Amino acid sequence: MAERMIEAYLGDDHLADRRGQYPMIALSSEIARAAPEVQERYGRLLSTMISLLATDGDEGDDTARERAMAVAALSVGGMILAQTLPESELAADVRRAALAMARQAGSDARADAGGGGIT
Question: Which domain of life does the protein's organism represent (predicted)?
Answer without folding.
Answer: Bacteria
